[in-house]
Amino acid sequence: MTARAAGSAPDHRLQRLALGSILLGLVVLALKFAAWKLTGSVALYSDALESIINVVTAIAAYAAIRVSALPADAGHPYGHSKAEYFSAVVEGALILLAALAILREAYHGLLNPRPLDAPLAGLLVSGLASALNMAWGLMLIRRGRRARSPALEADGHHLMSDVYTSAGVMLGVAVVALSGWAWLDSALAGLVALHILWTGWTLMRDSLGGLMDAALPAADLDRLVALIEAEKGEDARVLGLRTRLAGRLSFIDFTLQVPAQLTVAEAHARCDRIEEALLRALGEASINIHLEPLPN
C-alpha cells in the first residue's frame, strides 16, 4: 500500500520566496558596492564580493525548488525532490569560495593598509544592507524548516553568514575610523571569513547526508514510531521500519504483521489509519506498508 500527500500550493510559495531572494540579493549587492566606493575599505570590498555569491546561490535555490516541485514521471518515479540538495551543496561550496576571496583581500590589505574615506556614510549604507539581509535570512530559515526545504533553508543560512560578515566588517571600519589603525580593517575581515568557512562546510555536510539517503532525524523517527504504535492495534507487530528524507518528501516503509483471521478490508483499514496519522504529522510523504500474517 502506498500514500502520498501532494502540496502544489506550498511549492508556489517557496518559489516566490526564492525569487524574492534574487531581487533582494541584487539590492543588497548594489548597496554594498556603494559602501565600498564611499570608503575605499578593503573589508567592505570583500563584503561586496560575498554578496555576488548571494545572488548566484539565490538563483540556484530558485532553480532547484522549481525542479523539485515537478511531479514524478516515468524517468523519475520517486519525484525530483532531491534537486534541492544539489543546490544546497552548491551554495556551501560558493560560501567557501567567498570566504577564500575575503581572506585573499584581507591579506593584501594587511600588506598595504590605507586610510578610509567617508567611513560614516559607508557604515550607514552597509548597515542598511545588513538589516535587509538579516530580516530576509531569518524568514527563509523559518519557512524553509517549516516546509522542509533544504534549498530555502540553505539560502537563509547563507544570508545570515553574510550578516555576520558584514557585522565584523562594520566593526572593523568603525574601529579603524576612530583609532587610525588601518591594518585592523583587513584583520577583522579575515577573522569573519574563517567563520564563513565553517558555515559553508556545515551546509555541504548536511546536504551530502540527504543525497546519501540519510534517515529521518531521531526526534522525527521517535514520533513516527509512536504514531504507528497508536494506530496499528495491540494484536499487530511492526518490522523493518526504514526512513529516508529527500527534500520536503519523507519516504517510510515497513512490514505490518496482523492476525491471519483479519479480512483484507480490515487489514486495509488499519493501514489507512496509520497512513493518515503519518501524513498529518509529516505533511508530505511516500509510505509503503507490506502486510503479512502473524506467524503461528
Report on this model:
The chain is of the alpha+beta class and 296 residues long. It folds into 2 domains: 2-211, Cation efflux protein transmembrane domain (Alpha-lytic protease prodomain-like, Up-down Bundle), CATH 1.20.1510; 218-293, Cation efflux protein, cytoplasmic domain (Alpha-Beta Plaits, 2-Layer Sandwich). It is 71% helix and 11% strand. It has 8 helices and 4 strands; from the N terminus they run βαααααααββαβ. The chain has helices at residues 8-39, 42-68, 83-111, 119-147, 150-179, 182-211, 218-232, 264-282; strands at 2-4, 237-246, 249-258, 285-293. It has a 4-stranded mixed β-sheet with strand order 1-4-3-2, covered by helices on one side. Strand 3, helix 8 and strand 4 form a beta-alpha-beta unit. Helix 4 (119-147) packs antiparallel against helix 5 (150-179). The longest helix is centred in the N-terminal third of the chain and has 32 residues, at 8-39. The radius of gyration is 25 Å and the shape is elongated. The two termini are 24 Å apart.
Written as H for each helix and E for each strand, in order along the chain, the element string is: EHHHHHHHEEHE
Classified by CATH, the class of the largest domain is Mainly Alpha
**Total number of beta strands:** 4
Q: Reading side by side through the largest sheet, how are the strands ordered?
A: 1-4-3-2
Rg from Cα: 25 Å
Low-confidence stretches: 1-10
Given the C-alpha coordinates, what overall shape results?
elongated
End-to-end CA span: 24 Å
Sheet/helix structural class? alpha+beta
Mean pLDDT: 81
Whole-number tally of structural domains: 2
User: Can you identify the CATH superfamily of the largest domain?
Assistant: Cation efflux protein transmembrane domain
CATH topology of the largest domain: Alpha-lytic protease prodomain-like
Strand content: 5-15%
Number of helices: 8
Give the biggest beta sheet: 4 strands, mixed
CATH architecture of the largest domain: Up-down Bundle
